[in-house]
Amino acid sequence: MITHLRGRLIEKNPTYLVIECNGVGYEVKVSLNTFASMSSDENCMLFTQQIFREDAQLLFGFHSKEERQMFNHLISVSGIGPNTAILMLSALSPEEIAHAIQSEDVVTIKSIKGIGAKTAERVIIDLRDKVTKMEFSSNNIFTQNNTKRFEALTALIALGFDKKAAEKALDKVASGEESVEILIREALKIL
Length: 191
What we know:
CATH architecture of the largest domain: Orthogonal Bundle
Radius of gyration: 19 Å
């Protein structure tokens, strides 16, 4: 099993990368998030997941272990294959997917191309317990500050504001030190 690749970035496309390791070029399918996080530096490292099918051997690459872990969780759900999981990770970050699963946000998951209501519900049911155990290196979505943010978001939605607009407003005002009330007040000024 190939768990990671460290080598020279030969080719960079939004859907795949070619990485040369000791004279061998590996085509690695990637999400748009991984593509965007890759620098134009020649030397790179990707965490990988190898998938064997009867007609192909596929290699998927990820910029972080968390993204690879979310990919593995997603493909464990009936009806979601590796290409759909990559599509989901292109539309949302692993943290956003975990948050949508935890908050049982069917609409967010369903907004991803190719995911219907039944599949979105199946993702939530199958992965609810798994994502609570995930740890994210950058911003763990289950920290206290993000709990405050979630409470503020819930309050803004209850007041009748659009969820996406409320999230954008909270992103602009949140520095991590505010109380829920201050977050709501500051977001209301923007909305």
